[in-house]
Amino acid sequence: MLGPSCYHGASPRRKMIKRYSHPQMAKIWSEENKFRHWLDVELAVCEAWAELGKIPVRSLQIIKEKAAFSVERIEEIEKVVKHDVIAFLTNVAEYVGEEARYIHLGLTSYDIVDTALSLLLVESVDLIRQRVLELQKIIKEQAIKHKKTVIPGRTHGVHAEPITFGVKLLVWYEELRRHEQRIAQAREMIRVGRISGSVGTYIHLDPRVEAIALEKLGLVPARVSNQVLQRDRHAEILFVLSLIATSLEKFAVEVRHLQRTEVQELEEPFSRGQKGSSSMPHKKNPVRAERISGLARVIRSYLLAALENIPLWHERDISHSSAERVIFPDAFTLTDFILTEASDIIGHWNVHEDKMAQDVFLTQGLVFSQAVLLALTEKGLSREEAYEIVQTLSLRSLEAKIPFKELVLEEKRIREWLSLQEIDDCFRLEPYLEKVDFIFERVLGDEG
């Protein structure tokens, strides 16, 4: 097995991950916490054996009183034995003494490693869920604040019809709600352990040991396993993290687009003393949103490794182990970081409401073309003829930079069907806001 050196060290990559690591997630994936959970599993198994009469009560008391470990000592032993679990057990035995003969009774390494990994993953998933809820709350507040803030709707990057910034954010809010559901499902999928021996057949174990120990740990037994828990469970966790990261990238891309010089409807926070460019003092770049986009790509790349960890040889090979020592700490660390970044960006961004409203009319009324089209068809004109009239005027307006309404008023074929008041009604913003309350009510209920 690869030891701690596989993940820890002073390499540039490790320094990069450390930069993005927040204390809570860093603590979960520390060597100290990993070995702590290994010891938790070993002690739970000892307690189970004691309940079944295999370990004397006095021996269990001594084990629980003395059991401890030193990360530094484990690493020192591992350099010799080249096996991290053996190094761990050797170090624990140095603290416990003679009664250590009852520790690891009938177990194989991955009874401990996989069960403890499930504990680490549950801890990490719970923290990610907390971050998602924090971001949800911030987005909801912003959505309510901008419920009636008019902004151009854009499809294919081209102005469509007016929407509100609040509705745009409500889409994000609902997406995070779905992620919360996925997190809950993935948590249950990974909240399992296995204490069933070298190839999962309990040859040197009593299945009751597994049931008793896992209940103490807050896990449930896998209904069947070989030497490891099956890696489709772990891949599902990485899939959920990848989905969350991709949604955050979607939000970040929106920020990046809206911060473009030609748009300037929104800006991510720009702190006092911050510099945007080494050569151009005027620059205020969406660097944090861009960082989210970049790290989301890294997180998604780990999903491929998780998927490739599923087809192991026979009852198990070790090819997954080295990959998991990288992908799990990194994926959770980076997801935690970009969730926190997104919360800060969205919670403190600069929204230029006047520019949003101004840009609705950037195309000189073309966003109201469908309203004119529908008004004509409601009067009895065929859709084909109405579409041809409105499209011709729209293209002329776009090319000649003439206000669309002006051309509509001049068009005899339209004036034959629509009065001045009916034309005016086509160019009002109010109808585009009429159903916004309904949308908020459906998503937020009384909260909105």
Helix-strand layout with pairing:
Blueprint: H1 12-19, H2 23-28, H3 31-51, H4 57-66, H5 71-81, H6 84-96, H7 109-145, E1 150-155, E2 158-164, H8 165-190, E3 192-193, H9 207-217, E4 220-221, H10 232-258, E5 266-267, H11 287-308, H12 319-348, E6 350-351, H13 353-360, H14 369-378, H15 383-400, H16 404-410, H17 412-415, H18 420-426, H19 436-444
Parallel strand pairs: 3-4
Antiparallel strand pairs: 1-2, 5-6
Structure notes:
- With 448 residues, this protein is mainly alpha-helical.
- It has 2 domains: 4-148 and 159-270 and 282-357, Up-down Bundle (Fumarase C, Chain A, domain 2); 359-447, Fumarase/aspartase (C-terminal domain) (Ribonucleotide Reductase Protein R1, domain 1), CATH 1.10.40.
- Helix content is 64%, strand content 5%.
- It contains 19 helices and 6 strands.
- It has helices at residues 12-19, 23-28, 31-51, 57-66, 71-81, 84-96, 109-145, 165-190, 207-217, 232-258, 287-308, 319-348, 353-360, 369-378, 383-400, 404-410, 412-415, 420-426, 436-444, and strands spanning 150-155, 158-164, 192-193, 220-221, 266-267, 350-351.
- The strands form 3 sheets. The protein has a two-stranded antiparallel ribbon. The chain has a two-stranded parallel sheet with strand order 3-4.
- Strand 3 (192-193), helix 9 (207-217) and strand 4 form a beta-alpha-beta unit.
- Helix 3 runs antiparallel to helix 4, helix 7 (109-145) runs parallel beside helix 12 and helix 14 runs antiparallel to helix 15.
- The relative contact order is 0.11.
